[in-house]
Amino acid sequence: MPTSTFACMINCMDGRVQEAVIRHLKARLGVDFVDAVTEPGPIAHLSKGASVWVDNIKACTDVSVEKHNAKALAIVGHFDCAGNPVSKEEQVKQLHQSVQVLKEWYPHLPIYALWVNEQLEVEEIVS
Ligand SMILES: [Zn+2]
Description:
By secondary structure, the protein is of the alpha/beta class. The chain contains four helices and five strands, in the order βαβααβαββ. The protein has one domain: 3-Layer(aba) Sandwich (Beta-carbonic Anhydrase, Chain A). The longest helix is centred in the C-terminal third of the chain and has 18 residues, at 88-105. Zinc ion (ZN) is lined by residues 12, 14, 40-41, 78, 81-84.
């Protein structure tokens, strides 16, 4: 049986944005599966520095990278985020800060930053 290929998304737990990001990453990267690390507004946590949330995100992402050999990571922000109720402009800043954190953790992996808009379309902020 051929080995499956994976990417990993660090996404909000919001049910509206799961499928759009999984579809996007499968099409963009040609992977078989997308591992899901979810928290409410993960970019709010990653951009603010050390916390139990950040520790959890790192521990979950490590499993995807080490056990599934995830070939790329995506960090996601979205419209109307209940866990991170700030403007798109502010979230874009948080996405850039989060990319820097992920690059330190996983310098060998491509990192994408994605924005999901009101139409549930995925925009690439960093690619
Ligand atoms: Zn959210």
